[in-house]
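Structure (tokenized):
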């Protein structure tokens, strides 16, 4: 940023207007107070913390101008996300209009029913001045309520101590009213956008309170006096994004009548709430302070997301929302998903973490063949690490002791993140157990985790059984056609079948969207004649059905090993 010799920006106030929600536009007026004339550089973030993908939010800017005493002054776009403003006084405005109609947890969405503002995709920031105080107000909009974790000012105004707090505080405007519950000294508020029956809503609130209580007890307290759950129940939408005092969650409402899907929603809410500690306070060193323009890749996303993914299902179990059989089957589902492809032959857990910006968040038709998820393999590693710590400490400690130690030493005492080396040293300091030699290969090399060994330590018996013989690809309806969505390369190395091919017939039986699921199963090693269409040309291919083996739970015997009962009971 260039400025006058002694000039600096003192504070910024944003005024947000949504006068025509049906046009999906957001009008922003940024009032800038400075100590004098200057040449100022303002930037729109290119990404949102927690979502590791360059999104170039500035592409949603429709128009922008700068004004001084009502007269236009130079405002020039110098790069894709940067704007230079030249002012001669100590007060000026920047007005810009955004288009917001992407209904996710990390983008803006505005319509007459509700509006969601993701601050990194909404507000410009002054380069070199992220630490200045920020305020914002709302006017000219049709909604009755504004929900955010930002500190409330007069009327519809809010305050942030700096831009980091602003960017970490999503905003939801709606006519829906919220529900509240208190756990110890922390007020929790949840706004549910969407239409669900009163029984399901009551269950969500009751079960969510159980989850919050258990997490608070596991961490020996809560760092916040207030926490906001934003839950958007909307079709074809799933995901969550964590923040220091809130979380944004999306889920399809039509699935909530199904027990497994309801549990999946509670696991999502549990996952994002666990981030209140793990990543927002307990964090690898790359995850703060943030550079909102350039990404900072890290090999330690398995700590931030993998450990959190282990605890979300585990806490659902410990909260007694599901039984031990359902819980172990969820772990097995992750294991089966990991082993369904050849990804572990091409990518280690640390490589998965490091490359998420260009691989995990940029899926392509072959991603499942050559990559793995740090969520899934990270959660399996955390599961096994927890068991190992319990066993080697004679049941005195667990992975949760490590999490509490990291919270105290690095967040509360040092106020910083930690390195990989410091993480494994913390395991030793907190539990007396050195797990690095045991788990290093599963992090740094493309090595499968022998999870069966750890299952035995907690009295869980599993076996790999033939579920069915199936096609070596996945096909789904696409409009009136059936097209190949995923090809499993390890089974089709010598056969030319590609994603996007239309699947017309199998063994002379016409494939339709109504019967495609029935035509997936075939006798073991059956020869299958396919008729395909690619770019208007008819192709024939002969393939062999593939046996699908899945790990299945045989039994859980708590008494077979003392560690088993220890693992399946709450730590207290």
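Design, position by position:
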């Amino acid at each position: 940023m260039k400025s006058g010799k002694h000039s600096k920006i003192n504070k910024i106030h944003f005024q947000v207007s949504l006068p025509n929600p049906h046009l999906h536009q957001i009008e922003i007026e940024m009032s800038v107070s400075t100590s004098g004339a200057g040449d100022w550089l303002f930037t729109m973030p290119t990404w949102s913390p927690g979502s590791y993908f360059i999104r170039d939010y500035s592409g949603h800017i429709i128009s922008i101008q700068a004004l001084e005493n009502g007269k236009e002054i130079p405002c020039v776009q110098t790069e894709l996300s940067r704007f230079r403003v030249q002012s001669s006084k100590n007060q000026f405005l920047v007005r810009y209009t955004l288009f917001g109609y992407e209904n996710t947890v990390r983008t803006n969405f505005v319509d007459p029913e509700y509006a969601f503002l993701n601050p990194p995709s909404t507000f410009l920031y002054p380069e070199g001045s992220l630490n200045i105080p920020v305020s914002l107000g709302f006017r000219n909009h049709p909604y009755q309520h504004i929900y955010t974790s930002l500190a409330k000012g007069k009327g519809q105004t809010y305050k942030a101590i700096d831009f980091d707090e602003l960017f970490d505080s999503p905003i939801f405007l709606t006519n829906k009213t919220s529900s509240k519950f208190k756990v110890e000294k922390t007020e929790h508020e949840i706004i549910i956008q969407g239409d669900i029956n009163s029984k399901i809503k009551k269950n969500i609130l009751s079960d969510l309170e159980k989850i919050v209580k258990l997490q608070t007890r596991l961490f020996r307290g809560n760092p916040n006096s207030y926490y906001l759950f934003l839950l958007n129940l909307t079709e074809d939408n799933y995901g969550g994004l964590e923040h220091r005092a809130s979380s944004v969650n999306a889920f399809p409402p039509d699935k909530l009548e199904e027990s497994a899907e309801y549990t999946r929603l509670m696991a999502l809410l549990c996952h994002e709430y666990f981030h209140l500690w793990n990543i927002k306070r307990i964090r690898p060193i790359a995850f703060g302070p943030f550079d909102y323009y350039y990404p900072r890749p890290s090999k330690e996303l398995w700590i931030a997301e993998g450990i959190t993914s282990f605890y979300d299902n585990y806490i659902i179990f410990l909260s007694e929302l599901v039984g031990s059989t359902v819980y172990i089957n969820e772990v097995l589902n992750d294991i089966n998903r990991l082993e369904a492809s050849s990804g572990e032959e091409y990518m280690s857990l640390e490589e998965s973490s490091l490359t998420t910006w260009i691989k995990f968040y940029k899926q392509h038709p072959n991603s499942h063949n050559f990559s793995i998820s740090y969520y899934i393999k990270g959660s399996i590693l955390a599961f096994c690490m927890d068991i190992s710590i319990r066993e080697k400490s004679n049941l005195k400690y667990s992975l949760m002791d490590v999490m509490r130690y990291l919270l105290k030493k690095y967040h509360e005492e040092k106020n910083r993140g930690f390195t990989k080396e410091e993480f494994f040293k913390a395991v030793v300091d907190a539990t007396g157990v050195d797990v690095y030699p045991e788990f290093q290969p599963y992090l740094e090399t493309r090595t499968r985790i022998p999870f069966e060994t750890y299952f035995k330590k907690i009295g869980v018996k599993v076996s790999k059984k033939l579920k069915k013989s199936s096609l070596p690809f996945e096909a789904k309806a696409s409009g009136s056609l059936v097209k190949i969505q995923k090809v499993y390369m390890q089974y089709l190395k010598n056969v030319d079948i590609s994603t996007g091919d239309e699947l017309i017939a199998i063994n002379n039986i016409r494939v339709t969207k109504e019967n495609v699921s029935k035509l997936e199963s075939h006798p073991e090693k059956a020869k299958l004649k396919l008729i395909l269409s690619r770019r208007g040309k008819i192709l024939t291919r002969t393939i062999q059905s593939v046996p699908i083996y899945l790990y299945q739970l045989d039994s859980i015997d708590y008494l077979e090993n003392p560690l088993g009962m220890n693992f399946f009971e709450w730590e207290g």
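Reviewer-requested clarification: The mean pLDDT is 95. The chain has 13 helices and 29 strands.
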